[in-house]
Design goal:
- The complex is a heterodimer of chains A (242) and B (111).
- Chain A contains 3 helices and 13 strands.
- In chain A, the strands form 3 sheets. In chain A, strands 1, 7, 8, 10, 11 and 12 form a 6-stranded antiparallel sheet that branches.
- Chain B has 111 residues and is mainly β.
- Helices cover 0% and strands 66% of the residues of chain B.
- In chain B, strands 2, 4, 5, 7, 8 and 9 form a 6-stranded mixed sheet that branches.
- Classes of the chains: A alpha+beta (242), B mainly beta (111).
- At the A-B interface, strand 7 and strand 8 of A face loops of B.
Chain lengths: 242, 111
């Protein structure tokens, strides 16, 4: 099977220091955080939307109740304000729906770093936010990805690309409405013995990572996705070297 | 003439890279510098690391370097190439300082 493909990436997950918790290693996930963008946009839209709707509605009502006969232009302007406000509030609700989906989770492994040629079992935990059961159907996919990842361009606005060398689906699950917001899956994978160990340089990387994708069906058949990445440190297969 | 000879062209992590540098120019060399490094080529911005640098006698000399366990392997991928090389720079004595550089790549094998 040929996995090779080029992808543009919006950001690069940092290589996080894993935490050792008793006999297991916890690797925190990375997720492109859009909450502050949508939060700011939503706040602005609410700030402009509600006052424009309310003030325009009050003005329109007063005009219609009084004996003054306003021009069509004035009435059109006020109706336009109301429409714009309603559209703004609607966009804010869509954005808030997008960022309230899930937070980056964590995976737990019994050994770390990993070695090529070895088989590993891990548990992946993903919490939904807010802490309520699912209100839409979702699909949860967990994949093992091996890829070349590069950064180029201006340091202030870098571009990122990756070339996928290995891709393997480890877990696929349809989450029905009402599913608990605390998602846990246990997966197993084998790192290919002929694969490459991790390489981490500032602009060039050979990476192994677990990717967790939650795809939510919203009411209008649009699919909203929340991706979490867990970067793994993989060392060479020592037995193959001897 | 600056000659750089590597005893091995393929190594594995932990192996020793050995070789020698010889200066046979008409003018004597002031000093000869030897650098062992890896660097990247390809789509991404360049990364490089000089892992070993030493000054050899003006006429040249032997060197030995152990590939560290934390070093990357040679790699020729779609977006990234990791290239290992030995670079020798001779400073030639004289009124105007001249530099002669010779570079020899070698391969660090993962298996």
């Amino acid at each position: 099977m040929n996995f090779n493909r080029l992808e543009q990436l919006p950001s690069i997950a940092p290589l996080p220091p894993p935490r050792q918790n008793h006999s297991e290693w916890v690797i925190p996930g990375y997720s492109l955080d859009i909450s502050y963008i949508s939060g700011a946009a939503g706040g602005l839209l609410i700030l402009l939307g509600f006052p424009s709707v309310i003030s325009a509605a009050i003005a329109l009502r007063k005009i219609l109740e009084s004996s003054i006969h306003p021009s069509v232009v004035v009435i059109g302007f006020l109706i336009g304000c109301i429409a714009l406000g309603i559209v703004g509030i609607w966009i804010e609700l869509q954005l808030s729906n997008l960022w309230r989906l899930a937070t980056a989770g964590k995976i737990r492994l019994s050994t770390y770093p990993l070695q090529l040629g070895e088989t590993y079992t891990f548990s992946c935990r993903q919490e939904l936010y807010p802490n309520k059961p699912l209100t839409t159907v979702a699909q949860w996919t967990i994949q093992l990805i091996g890829a070349e990842v590069v950064t180029f361009g201006q340091s202030s606005r870098p571009s990122h690309e990756r070339w996928v060398l290995h891709q393997e689906t480890l877990h696929e699950q349809i989450l029905p409405i009402g599913t608990s917001p605390d998602l846990v899956a246990t997966c197993q994978f084998k790192l290919p013995s002929t694969g490459l160990p991790s390489f981490e340089a500032p602009h060039n990387r050979i990476r192994w990572q677990i990717e967790s994708n939650l795809k939510f069906d919203d009411n209008k058949n649009n699919r909203l996705t929340r991706k979490s990445e867990y970067v793994l440190l993989v060392e060479a297969d020592l037995q193959a070297q001897t | 003439m600056l000659n750089l000879t590597l005893q091995q062209s393929e190594l594995r992590i932990g192996d020793h890279l050995t070789g020698y540098v010889q200066w046979t120019g008409n003018q004597p060399a002031k000093e000869i510098k030897l650098i062992i490094q890896w660097r990247t080529e390809g789509r991404g911005s360049i990364d490089e690391a000089k892992l070993h640098a030493m000054i050899l006698p003006p006429e040249g000399g032997h060197f030995s370097f152990q590939i560290p366990s934390t070093a990357p392997y040679s790699y020729d991928g779609q977006l990234i190439r990791i290239i290992w090389e030995v670079k020798s720079i001779a400073k030639i004595a004289g009124l105007v300082q001249l530099l002669k550089t010779v570079t020899q790549p070698f391969y660090v094998n993962p298996y």
